[in-house]
Design goal:
Strand order of the largest sheet: 1-2-3-5-6-9
Largest sheet: 6 strands, mixed
Radius of gyration: 15 Å
Shape: globular
Number of strands: 9
Helix content: 25-40%
Mean pLDDT: 85
Low-confidence stretches: 1-7, 114-124
Strand content: 35-45%
């Protein structure tokens, strides 16, 4: 986990001693690398430990936000939607995970905002 997660003030979400993310306010924040952490099979998805989600995230957060540290893209969803729409996946030796298809997350892409700003300012 990156230093920015550990430096955020909030409640740490851990699994087996590993920091998974931080709950700050009503949101669970997790920093990921698309290349390393995104599930590709059976379909592109973001995942989280099933146990950590049910025991720590769902009771304490309304929203989830995954930030791809490579691109700056933010993927957002409501925890109730994650609970309802996710599927379980288990690849030993890792703990069972819940995963939600990428197309089910709201995408906030800073590159898209930059392009829109350039268009609005007449630079493109």
């Amino acid at each position: 986990m990156s230093a920015s997660n550990s430096s955020m003030s909030g409640k740490a979400v851990k699994q087996d001693g590993h920091l998974l993310g931080i709950i700050k306010g009503d949101t669970f924040y997790k920093r990921v690398s698309r290349q390393k952490h995104m599930l590709r099979n059976p379909r592109p998805s973001w995942a989280l430990s099933r146990e950590a989600f049910h025991d720590q995230v769902l009771p304490n957060a309304t929203f989830m936000e995954y930030t791809d540290k490579d691109s700056g893209r933010k993927y957002k969803c409501q925890t109730v939607d994650f609970a309802r729409l996710s599927f379980e996946i288990h690849h030993p030796p890792y703990e069972p995970q819940l995963a939600l298809d990428v197309n089910r997350w709201e995408l906030d892409d800073p590159r898209g905002r930059q392009l829109l700003l350039a268009l609005e300012c007449g630079h493109v």
